[in-house]
Q: What sequence folds into this?
């Protein structure tokens, strides 16, 4: 027995030093003498788990519990292994038994919370992690997981505080830096997120996720070359990652390196042929190049991508294949953002020409404007049951179904109409101002990953506002309006956005205002599509890597005859864009 104790003590020493092979051999020697020694069985189970042999770990831990069923640590760690295997209900049972035996066992509360989180029982999980840190306030991993639980519940500030507490306790905790960076990025604090991800990389240079998250945050900052470097570093660590190849391709595309981007997507698809995000990204590149023949069919992968919010149709009606409708009813389902709906609702009239009755499912707030679109027989608010129909199609699938090519883009504008009464109301209101009336919008949805690339600070419009005879009207609503006060000393601007569309329906007042302006200047938001669909003169300020629908290089758009495109010549260079606009307005006003 003394020899067994000495062997076990030596095995534990090697185990703590990380010499797993030597420790495992010694534990097996103990079991040769005492085949049911619970501590040796438990330790073998934990070594098996650390070496990635979870099934074997379960076997050893269950054998240990058979000998010593009242050991809380055995139950707790068997639960941890079950959780790693995805056997969450069994994990919960093990952790609950550990806590029955030892109610103040912090690690058991921690592991139980993680298992409950995996089961979607978020409030219970949060309570477990809170109890874990009460039992052991210096338990860094528990604070980290409490932060994850808070984040899952949408409690971002609490999540940040928990991650920061974990990092005070364990300053080199790379996972906590990654989690903190993720919340900061969600809060729009991209600079702080980058700093947090850099710390994760510093403490864990071999941590692939840290390099990828850093690259994504750098991309959102507009620091594209650095993002490329970080993604490339991640691929050196793990070249077999379709996600990373696809994300690298996206940054290369943003740098205008389309061929290199396509090579990344091809490699991602070689590794995972059904990877929807890579297919969608390749579609963007082909569509941007005007290769609609390949681009539209490939774009159909979008509905399989995470974040696609339109649920698949579950009824018995089949998807439309583009064939003649022969008086059948077709349900067109709006999807994605308001700008997408405004751009592609034009296809309703083409579908009607196929001989069917056209029903359109769309956001209720957009319906007053969409009623002015030709080809729509009936509008149905999203979330309500549609009337009987025979076939269905997503709105952005129509270009593929109808074989749209660059030369056949349906551009019969205007296809939307402002309400005449509202047009007259705003004509009277704006008639007191003389000069060249320019309506502007500068900010897209800040939650969109590429918003920093497409949106511009309101101060960027200063060259246009400085042109003599120009009067600037803000059409901006929501995000971005906080900048209005910051330009008071730079140029004069009349805020209309706060008064628009509050009671009339989405874009109804805005459309009427646009009809009374000389020009609209906007970044790539729904405002551009609204102005184009109304046939109003609109100048679109585009980033160096524009969205696929604006194609490459050309100054006009096949989608809207009243639109002109002003493109960055270098990433981030908005100044030259607005200087060019100002020059053209000045020439127009000074001309004959």
A:
């Amino acid at each position: 027995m003394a020899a067994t104790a000495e062997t076990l003590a030596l095995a534990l020493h090697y185990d703590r030093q990380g010499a797993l092979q030597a420790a495992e051999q010694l534990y097996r020697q103990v079991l040769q003498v005492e085949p049911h020694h619970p501590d040796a069985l438990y330790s073998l189970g934990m070594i098996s788990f650390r070496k990635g042999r979870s099934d074997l770990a379960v076997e050893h831990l269950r054998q240990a519990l058979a000998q010593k069923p009242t050991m809380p640590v055995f139950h707790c760690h068997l639960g941890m292994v079950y959780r790693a295997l995805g056997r969450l209900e069994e994990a919960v049972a093990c952790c609950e038994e550990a806590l029955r035996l030892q109610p103040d066992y912090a690690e058991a509360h921690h592991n139980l919370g993680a298992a409950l989180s995996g089961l979607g029982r978020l409030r219970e999980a949060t309570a477990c992690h809170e109890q874990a840190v009460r039992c052991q306030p210096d338990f860094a991993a528990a604070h980290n997981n409490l932060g994850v639980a808070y984040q899952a519940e949408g409690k971002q500030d609490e999540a940040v505080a928990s991650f920061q507490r974990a990092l005070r306790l364990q300053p080199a905790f790379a996972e906590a830096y990654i989690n903190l960076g993720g919340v900061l990025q969600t809060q729009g604090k991209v600079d702080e997120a980058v700093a947090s991800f850099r710390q994760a990389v510093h403490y864990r240079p071999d941590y692939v996720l840290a390099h990828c998250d850093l690259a994504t945050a750098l991309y959102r900052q507009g620091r594209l070359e650095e993002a490329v470097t970080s993604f490339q570093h991640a691929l050196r660590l793990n070249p077999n990652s379709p996600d990373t190849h696809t994300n690298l391709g996206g940054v290369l595309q943003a740098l205008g390196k389309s061929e290199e981007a396509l090579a990344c997507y091809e490699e991602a698809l070689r590794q995972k042929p059904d990877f929807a995000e890579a297919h969608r990204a390749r579609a963007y590149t082909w569509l941007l190049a005007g290769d609609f023949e390949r681009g539209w069919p490939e774009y159909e992968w979008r509905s399989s991508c995470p974040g696609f919010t339109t649920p698949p149709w579950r009824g018995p009606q089949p998807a439309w294949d583009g064939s003649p409708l022969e008086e059948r009813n077709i349900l067109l389902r709006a999807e994605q953002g308001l700008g997408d709906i405004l751009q592609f609702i034009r296809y309703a009239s083409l579908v009607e020409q196929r001989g069917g009755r056209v029903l359109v499912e769309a956001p209720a707030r957009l319906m007053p404007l969409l009623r002015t679109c030709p080809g729509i027989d009936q509008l149905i608010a999203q979330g309500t049951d549609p009337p009987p129909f025979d076939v269905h199609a997503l709105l952005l699938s129509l270009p593929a179904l109808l074989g749209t090519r660059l030369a056949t883009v349906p551009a019969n504008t205007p296809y939307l109409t402002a309400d005449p009464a509202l047009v007259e109301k705003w004509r009277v209101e704006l008639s007191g101002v003389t000069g060249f009336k320019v309506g502007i919008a500068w900010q897209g949805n800040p939650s969109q990953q590429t918003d920093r690339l497409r949106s511009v600070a309101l101060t960027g419009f200063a060259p246009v506002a400085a042109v003599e005879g120009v009067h600037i009207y803000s059409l901006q609503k929501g995000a971005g309006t906080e900048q209005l006060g910051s330009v008071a000393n730079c140029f004069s601007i009349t805020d209309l956005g706060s008064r628009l569309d509050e009671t009339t329906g989405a874009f109804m007042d805005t459309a009427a205002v646009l009809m009374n302006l000389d020009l609209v200047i906007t970044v790539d938001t729904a405002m551009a599509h609204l102005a184009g669909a109304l046939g109003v003169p609109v100048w679109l300020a585009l980033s160096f890597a524009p969205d696929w629908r604006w194609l490459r290089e050309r100054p006009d758009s096949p989608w809207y005859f009243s639109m002109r495109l002003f493109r960055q010549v270098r990433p981030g260079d908005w100044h030259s864009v607005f200087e060019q606009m100002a020059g053209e307005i000045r020439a127009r006003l000074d001309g004959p």
